[in-house]
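Continuing from the previous page of notes. For each protein in this section, the sequence appears first, followed by its structure tokens. Read the first protein now.
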Amino acid sequence: MDLATQPVGTKGRDAYLWRLLATALSFALFGLGGLCLRLVIFPLLACLPGDARRQRLRARKTVSRLFWLFIRFMARSGVLTYDVQGAEQLGRPGQMIIANHPSLIDVVFLIGLVRDANCVVKESLWNNPFTRGPVRAAQYISNDGSLDMLDGASQALHEGQTLIVFPEGTRTQPGQAPTFHRGAAAIALRGARVITPVVIKVSPSTLTKAEPWYRIPQRRVHFSFHVGADIDPQTFAAQGPAPQASRKLNEHLHHYFTKELARDERYTPGPDS
């Protein structure tokens, strides 16, 4: 698995019109791929022998591999570049991966990096015709804000699954610090063996909540993923009742990400910067 991309040598591929065309093609492939998974691939996988756990594992590995191929396609076509620091720390049993959410495809990157990860995803993806096939077959968790969601996420961690969570619940507003909801901290205290933060930086900003896919920046985008040191949730669980512990852990995570996102010296911009 390539964890860094090199500058694309062909000057034409850095041109605005080329990147716009390649971005349109990427999104078309993503949508068609989602329909193909739902209508063809997953029904075929369901015919293979194995229990429910085995079926889930097949589905998640299929989604992960295809997501990574999608990222590689975007990189090879000149839409973006990326680097990942510390990927070997991801994918452990009972690990809760917590990340900020600056762009639409953050979840595609992380699921592509972790072959058998569970993920808390937006509830709307369960009804989207292009995404509901993959999220249902992989048995990802719908972020509907209910107690059932908290229980399901905690249970997944107790079972030894790796769980990816974006505590903001939606994409970060450009130029603003992330705002974390306490649900992620509550899940971590209920079931995580370890919390691993992943700081994501995107330069220049793209695919935010306020930007449609066709509003691409004037230069190629670079994604940077930095896997931080593990956090022991029991350190916070021992500091008081569950609501108090959850608040303290959430404050710690918010402070950590705010501090890390402000460290420009750690961030190496893409080759077009």
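Done with the first. The second protein uses the same format. Note its length before scrolling.
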Amino acid sequence: MKSHGRSGKKRTGGRRRNVHKKKKHELGDSPTETRVEDRKLKVVETRGGNTKVRALRTDVASVADGDEVVQATIENVAENGANPNYARRNIITRGAIIETSAGTARVTSRPGQDGQVNAVLVE
């Protein structure tokens, strides 16, 4: 289980004994790697009783061209600056260049956090 608490080791390499167990607010989660496939969303509970929608898989993007926004189907990920392997595995993150039915676009939203893909056409 991932934790954002203090490390169990001191700077010197010695062991640091736990003062308390892992608290829920210290726990982390692995990143949501949104793939290009049929749409599948996941609702996650967050702090304060709120919820967050994560896109596990999606094949639709809202592509903006100036003032006009069009729903386009995602064909594949052309390149991804976050990780070259993400482009090979068709994983969408913010800043990724995707090929859509409307043309080549750059993703401006965070699909793993927002649950949707927003993009701007690249000329």
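What the second structure shows: The first strand starts at residue 34 and ends at 36. The chain has a mean pLDDT of 93. We return to this in next week's lecture.
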